[in-house]
Amino acid sequence: MATATDSATSGAAVARGRIDTAALASAQARDGVLFDIRDLEVYFPVQQSLLQAIVRAEKRFVHAVDHITFQIREGEIIALVGESGCGKTTTGRTLLRLEEATGGEILYKGLPLRRFDKHALRAYRRKAQIIFQDPYNSINPKHTVFDIVAEPLQVNEICSSQREIEERVTRAVSEAGLRPAREYLYRYPHELSGGQRQRVCIAGATVLEPDVIVADEPVASLDVSIRNDILKLMVEHKEKLGVTYVFITHDLSLAWVLSDRIAVMYLGRIVEIGNTEEVVANPRHPYTKALISVIPVPDPLAKKEHIILKGETPNAVDIPSGCRFHPRCPEALPECAEVDPPEVDLGGGHRAACIRLK
Amino acid sequence: MIPRRFRNWILVWTPAVWLLLELLMYPKDTNFGDGVGAVLRGFTASRIGGYPAWAMTLLAVVAGAAGVVGLVRRDKAVRFNLTLLAEAAVFAAWAVVAGGGLSQWSARANDTSWNWAFQTVVVALAGVAVWMWAAANPERAALTEWNVHQVWKLYRRNWQGMVGLAIIVIFVGMALLAPFLADHNLLDPNSQLRDPKTGQLLGPYHPPTLDYYNLFGTDQVGQSVLAQFIWSARISLFVGLLAAIMSTVVGAAIGIAAGYYGGWQGEVWMRLTDVFLVLPWLPMAMVLAAAWGQNYWMIIVIIGITSWPGTARVVRSDTLRVRELQFIERARAIGSSDGHIMKRHVLPNVMPLIFANLVLVVAIAILSETTLSFLGLGDPLNFSWGTMLHYAWVNGAAGLPAWWYLLPPGIAIILVVLSFTFIGTAYEEVLDPKLRKREESGADNRFAAADEAVAGGAVS
Amino acid sequence: MSATTATATSAPAGRIEHKGLLEVRGLTTYFKLGVGDVKAVRDVSFHVEPGESLGLAGESGCGKTTAALSILKLLPENGRIVSGEVLYDGKNLARRTEYGMSKIRWKEISIIFQGAMNALNPVKETGLQVAEPIVLHEGVSEEKALERARELFEMVGISAKRVMDFPHQLSGGMRQRAMIAMALACNPKLVIGDEPTTALDVMVQAQILDLIERLRHELNLAFILISHDLSVMAETCDKGVIMYAGEVVESGTTTDIFRRAGHPYTQQLIKSFPNIHGTREMVSSIPGDPPNLLVVPPGCTFAPRCSERVAGCEETHPELVEVEPGHWVRCVHARKGV
Fold it and tell me: In chain B, which residues have their Cβ closer than 8 Å to the Cβ of C34?
């Protein structure tokens, strides 16, 4: 599963310490694996009061991402699904180094992300882009659509002439569904609807022709009837341009229609991961089973049992002992409070971390 | 309303026509036959209107070259390049006329009113050039016009703002047209006013009569108070504006840096600001004036150095707000450097506040300049309203009572400062997002027609 | 939609006969803007029986919140009920004075506003805020009201010990439960919930909806659920009303609406929600935008976006047709089936 991705170049580069742009340029995804995330840990320190600092109280951390391991393959759409506080957004942002990992490794095409030097990081940022949830705040209200979409090109000094910039911007805006592009290039965000704004954000991300786009709840703020267009756009990008999408969402049913693989997260851990249809048809982790059972469907006659969990997700500072889900788990055993279950391979790329699955 | 294309041409050619009128209005009996040599001598004279000739020549060459190159390359900004050429021509004419290229005209070499006229034209043309540059991109021009139109619609509702704007327009007009309104020679120490009918000297402290130059009477040496008043407008407004710009630029830069960086860097900037905030500005200004000499450029610098902390604090707090908005994070995600983010993202969003602040700072700067001049620290070679008040005070005009010497500058200061305050508060009302939202959510989208015309596009 | 006016002889003086606990008949509400009137709600009719749950569904701007606010006359300054009746307990609420309405609000009908859980006063203890309406309406002392607040907290699933916690000490789900407790404070017969679960995680949403179900049955509470989420409506409501551009385009039981949708908008809207227990297909979308309600189009409001549009749709305004008993559809293709 976790294939050895040390090629000659990356091995040498790692040995050298810092990854530079040359190493980045020559790297390739081995066996189609774009990202190899191993034991990733992202902890945020909780601020101590002065008194606590004086008495040297034990430092506490928010365990946003607590040792997760998975791979992201080229050209797939993988969804990170979970409720608020599960760490999916932090994972997505750490992939772009908008947050720094406090432990573990993220290997991009075999090269450890942590060791990229300043220039390599800039080069990497061209290859990995992000779309935020709120199309109202994630673009500068004082900039025209042209400015917004051209900015990545200008900042990274990619194009050699103004005309080239105009061409690429027009193409990106038009591919994002705003046609004819000329009508939209000089509008300001407040003159556009929410769906149009989100398309501008997408154009701003695709203009660099990245390998991977992290989409953080891209349709959550949009009206239901226009979600489809944005989702179709993502599928188009995947199929025509080979863009890999990391789709972060709390809506498992949307992840189900859109993505190839799903990773269900709870309190900083991946509790279940696998191909979408398999995970939804045969959920093996109690949390996944509960989530799927309570998702409302537009069919009043669908008879199903709702597994409604008690209580809410605990805060990520005080993680329960043993299996972190055990206080709410309807299938908990006494051992669950003591043993942190490892992931069990269920075949076909489907894994789940539950003590009952051994 | 004048159609747009005519309007722009009028803007371009009015200064040129004005220059022509200037040339025609002034002395006759000229002999243009002195030849090219005499003309060229103008460019090699040491000074043109007090400015070094080499600088004027260089500016003329650069502006001209830029204009020619632009036209040859068939840049879209045709009018901008033409304006540059016009600017070069004005510089050249100035050099010729004031540099002494033509013998009969050389007497005018140091004639200050000529120089003032040329200066005004140059400044006006520079403004036109900027407008033309902005208008070069038709879509962006349409947008700028739209934005200005929107701001104007909101601004118009505020009566104080309109009154303030009217008063300022009158005073700025008076300042710009000073060469036409009052002969600069009347400010010369030797030119006392004479009764136009009898030819006799009017003498000191002559009360106002209906004669044009005697509308405000005479001062302690018999000179026209009106002439001084009109020309003082230039200095007072100019110093005020420039000092305010300098103070705002420094204050905004420090404010943005302090707000954006935060942490210990931000703290350093803020403590520096606190130091300057706490320094008593008047004693410090007096010390600096004594040390650096008294001319109006120094006054500008002094006011600029002492008044930036207020702007810095205001800009910093707005920067703190803008810094948290998500598009800043997006800018970081696409690889922008901090400098780029501050310049292209923070600054435009903080700009409305900076502008509103600037207007109020202008008012303060004008008052500061008046204070310094009144205390005798102003520029002795030039008249400003504060200087007029100083002379009036020092020479006991209040006791006489020569009210015509005290009231005009005093009232002018009050009106100007009040007007800027009105404009500032009116503009702050324009900035109020609550007002703005109602406008935006109305059926106000000027692209609505275009939207209907766009058929079949995947627009959601 | 015909209004049934039963014989007036058997009714007490001034009492209007109406269906169910609350009946809205031909409600029309406009908002006054500088440039004209926004016809936000036009000729909307529905009724709720005691203990029944009704869903008002539609996208943003369709008028569902306005209709709900009209019931309790909680419209903003520039809103007014132009015509129609809101009949409760034999009286027309649309014509009542403020004083009359204050007797109804909270005591008979209460409302949970959209995003209310974020509108709690951050510097006042939650329990005291829940107790406030009790003090105001029933004139009891604060201690007694607090006792009742503790009971309410237990009823909605929050430990009574937390009654003196501040809002920031409670999670989002708990704050929403507190809002429900507040709505139940004076034992109303009808509760209106405006997007009660929109900002919540899916598990918490399930808990809240389950709670509302339970309370409905325990207290025989009628509930009007306003939501843009058709799936939620399908799961929790007995009856539904689909609104578009200020009008009712379809109404009936949820089974009617979801299994035998008659209006093209309803059909398309249902397909915009994924069914995780059905076939795995991409959700559909509806091109175009809803019309500007400053100028109401003469014909069918949905026609410009409708895939079933025929000649005449944009000119003639369709009426509601009863395609099955109790199932009404406003479309030219609907055939009367009673």
Answer: 442
Contacts of B440 (CB under 8 A, 6+ apart): A190
Assign A23 a pLDDT band (cuts: 50, 70, 90): confident
Are C273 and A298 a contacting pair at CB < 8 A? yes
**8 Å CB contact of C275 and A299:** yes
Higher pLDDT, A1 or A46: A46
User: What is the extent of the structural domain holding A246?
Assistant: 8-357
Distance from CA of A214 to the nearest CA of C (A): 20
Query: Is B165 among the domain residues?
Result: no
Q: Please state the ipTM of this predicted complex.
A: 0.83
Q: Does B449 fall in a domain?
A: no
Q: Which residue on chain B is closest to C292 by alpha carbon?
A: B443
B132 and B189 inside one domain: no
pLDDT of residue B75: 60
Residue B57 belongs to domain spanning: 7-136
Q: What is the pTM of this model?
A: 0.75
Q: Which tokens belong to B384? A: 């400003």
> Cβ contact (<8 Å) for C35 and B460?
no
Q: Give chains near B: 3+ CB pairs under 8 A.
A: A, C
Number of domains present in the structure of chain B = 2
Q: Please tell me whether residues B197 and B335 are part of one structural domain.
A: yes
Whether residue B70 sits in one domain with residue B127: yes
Of B325, B351, B447, the CB nearest to A187: B447
Q: How confident is the model at residue A63 (pLDDT cuts 50, 70, 90)?
A: very high
Split into its structural domains, chain A has a count of 1
Identify the closest residue of chain A to B449 by CA–CA distance: A183
pLDDT band at B351 (very low <50, low <70, confident <90, very high): confident
Query: Poorest-confidence range of A277-291, A322-336, B148-162, B377-391?
Result: B148-162
Do B216 and B358 reside in the same domain of the chain? yes
For residue A31 the two structure tokens come to 């066996």
In a domain, A320, yes or no: yes
Which pLDDT band, with edges at 50, 70 and 90, does A37 fall under?
very high
Give tens-digit pLDDT for B387-418. 999 998 888 877 778 888 889 999 999 999 99
pLDDT digits (tens, 9 = 90+) for C202-242: 898 999 999 999 999 999 999 999 998 999 999 999 999 99
Residues B239, B114: one domain?
no
Distance (Å) from the alpha carbon of C163 to chain A's nearest alpha carbon: 17
Domains, chain C: 22-108+188-329 (3.40.50.300)
What local confidence, expressed as pLDDT, does residue B44 receive?
Answer: 54
Question: Which residues of chain B have a CB within 8 Å of the CB of C285?
Answer: 460
> What CATH number should be reported for the domain holding residue A104?
3.40.50.300
What's the pLDDT band for B77 if we cut at 50, 70, 90?
Answer: low
Q: Are residues B226 and B111 in the same domain?
A: no
State whether A178 and B459 contact (CB < 8 Å). yes
- The predicted model gives C29-47 an average pLDDT of 90
Orientation angle between helical segments B4-25 and B112-135, nearest 10 degrees? 170
Whether the pLDDT of residue C130 is over 70: the answer is: yes
Count contacts between A and B (CB, < 8 Å): 91
Question: Does residue A148 fall inside a structural domain?
Answer: yes
Q: Are residues B195 and B329 in the same domain?
A: yes
- In the three-class reduction of DSSP (H, G, I as helix; E, B as strand; rest coil), residue C121 is classed as coil
A210 domain-assigned: yes
